[in-house]
Amino acid sequence: MGNLPVFALYTDPGAGSMMLQLVLGGLSGLYVYFRIFHQRARNFFLGKPEQHLPEADVAFQSGSLQQGTKIVGEPSSQAANPAQKP
Amino acid sequence: MISSFDPASFRDPAGHVFSLQDRIFRYVHATSVQDWRDLCNSGLLGYLQEKGFVVATREVQLDPALDPDLPSTSVILEHEKVPFISYPYEWSFEMLRDAALLHLELMETCLGKDFILKDSSAYNIQFIGTRAVFIDILSFTRPKPGEPWLGYNQFCKMFLFPLMLQAYKEVPFQSWLRSELEGIDPVLFSKLMGTRDLFRPGVLMHVWLQGVLQNKFAAKKRSIRAEIRSAQFSKVAISNNVRGLSRLIRRLDTRPPSGRTWVNYSDQHSYRTEAFEKKEQFIREAIGRKRYRLVWDLGCNTGHFTELAAPFADYLVAMDADPFSIDRLLSLVKEKKIPNVLGLVMNLANPSPDHGWRACERQSLVSRGRPDMILCLALVHHMAITENVPVRSFLQWLSQFGGELIIEFVSRQDAMVQQLLLNKEDTYEDYHQSHFESCLQELFSIRTHLMLPGGTRFLYWATPKENSVARAGQRTQSEASSFEIPR
User: Fold this and answer.
1) Which residues from chain B sit within 8 angstroms of residue A21, using beta carbons?
2) pLDDT above 80: residue B444
């Protein structure tokens, strides 16, 4: 790991592969591609924050976490930006 | 006991594999029990087992006395035991292709039943004979609405890129996969692709664009996954990608470079027909006296003697350093419907070691099974002269398993040995029949031997001495200092 830039230790190489699937998924994938940019534009003009919630928060918001599930710590502020973790 | 969990079974918290009394079990964590129940109730597991795509699995009740450490509420599965574990870096091109196509077939079937495979590790697949089977039952899960295929990146790294490396660049993938257990990284792989390669099927999208996007999105501070989920990625899009990959992988082609030594060997060998028949007869008589549990055919070439030995073995593992030989062997075995032969790419001068996490995630060749019969035909001269392994050391290695041995010594007068020595300085003072025989007698009891017509090749059938296993074990530990060969 000695040759990796510091930011590379915190990056997720799977993100680019997920975006690629929008192309590889044919028309269905391209449709999602346009929806993402539509969402981004709408969020920009409505002043909503970008989506960067971790999975546990999304599950929590959508109600799919079981009752009584304990989430340790503040849910989003720290996990939203993993690059700041030591 | 927790301590008896398989050392390779730690990455997925959904469950862990363990063995008890030579049986293979899987503990299912409470959070994954629902997935298991769904898999059974949907009929998907039954269908996949019937097709032979997944390893036979059933839910069992374990006697708590057997393992008091297991939580009483957990679900325990029992799997059919795979006769001999193998790893992707020991597979030939066709084996890796079969494994990749099995994975894609499972994905396609799963999506139709509202399931998905949550990862794409090539280590989730094993071979029983020539049949690829999926072994990680807990990889089957319900897809999360709107999510893309999370295993796509891993599929490329562990299946697609190694296959492309061989098919497009004629570089064997085995040594790369052996050192990088997670497969070939898209950014690194895209650096190997020249301009001409961009026009080859799949390179532009799966390699070049993936490498570019990986760099572009790696450090983004927004969650791409959440964005895609929110925009509702569809199963149809995943299915399109899976079908495209399947078509691409079926089209990949590889052929041995012209003049390839081993693949042509069985067609071009220097035996006279009479000698070949005598050799067959000797081997048939030696191995045909009883049935063996596990036979290794080392340096199997394209499998003529593998086929001869297979009826006398419960399971036979045939190994050769040349991947193309293994492919030819497998096509022979498939054609003749021999069910108990596994072919592996293995350089015996550098056999698979223990490695991975804590150096025990992936097991060495020698710790995966002890053969009770080893066939070692026309191999010693390659070990001694090509690989510079002393004759005594090689025989010690063979004797450590405590099994019988059928071995062929090819003398210096043989045309093949003379060819090996053509451009080498002859420092192989230990490569003489008398020295070979004395080492063999020291470690084994020679039961029968035969000089083949032509007078340059000698066959030996040897059985282990009672104390040879213990002595060989001690020698292996102090291997470096025990080379007593007069060189």
Assistant:
1) 148-149, 152, 233, 237-238, 241
2) yes
